[in-house]
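Fold it.
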Amino acid sequence: MLKILNILVDDKFIDGLIEVLEFTKGENKQDYIMIGNGVIEKFQYITKAEYLKQIDCKECLDFINNNDYDLVILHSLSCIPWFKIGQIDSKIKVLWKAWGFDLYRTPSEIQPFVKLKRFHPITKKYWLRHYKGKIYLNFKTWIYSQIHKKEIESAINRIDFFSGCLPNEFDLMKKNNFFRAKHVELPYFHLNSNYTNENKDVFQELGNNILIGNGAVIANNHFDIFKSISAIDISDKQIIVPLSYGGDSFYIKDIITYGSKVFGKHFSPILDFMSLQEYNTLLSTCSYAILGYEQQAALGNAAELLWLGVKLFLPQMSVNYKYFRDNGYKVFTIENDLTEEQISQPLTLNEKLQNREAFLKTMSIDINLEKINKIYKIIEKSN
């Protein structure tokens, strides 16, 4: 029997994660904690608070090291202070579930673990004009990361196992010579999804709208995407733009202003946070989607869109595009394929089936459960 500790942050993925880990644990024991400097009375996203124990930052190492854990899973690097990772007892295996922020903006946005060109030209100009305070803060963070370079590298070197949100992120992280972790896959997903072989040939009717982005994070490159489709005839479509997750209030305001100017009555910003079911219903009103991230991001959105049979456009050099292309999905590039012709032709039935087949080989419920059970076996063998 394994005793596993999950160190969490309050985010929209966590309820589904707890549900999956409780379902797969068998005889293993799964514990869940959040580390902080005070008690959180009400979480923003987590509803399964009964599973969760809040641990004071000063006491977290005692808790981790003195409860006979075989494995500690760090759900993002923000779940625990840097310097404490290296102080986790060497007998305990450490698995880092890396989120996008961990790889592409940590330890600093100037020099992250994985360096990518995150912003497209118009968004880059907006960033330089409106985020001067953030740029200054990034510079200070970079100085801090340089001063504490050895401690940061030592913390990453302490980690035994790594799971990105996509497998190709392991190869990106491997370019850091202080990174020694072995690759595993710890997917985030929901048990009650329809991603099963039984539903492979069942397609619901889709609307004709266009989805742009997954939230108000500037790395969506909204401005550039709006400009790229501004000359396309969308008279029979709505431009659906979710803005209820992440981002700054002034950025949201500017996106709404620019979107309204470009698309007029066809612009539909989404400002209220939706349940997963409500959000997936919204996605089904679209036959086309454009996700402008260069980094791995919006993977849950991309998965649902591909399963639904939505035509998905991505930057051609993005982590997401390379993964989907290399694994047999029919996806399209923003740079070469985002034309009026392509935006007026939904995926054919054969293209939808191609994406379902690829999905069932890479991200189905059964495949994801196998990935988690494989982690249990690996840890059992390593003890």
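The mean pLDDT is 95.
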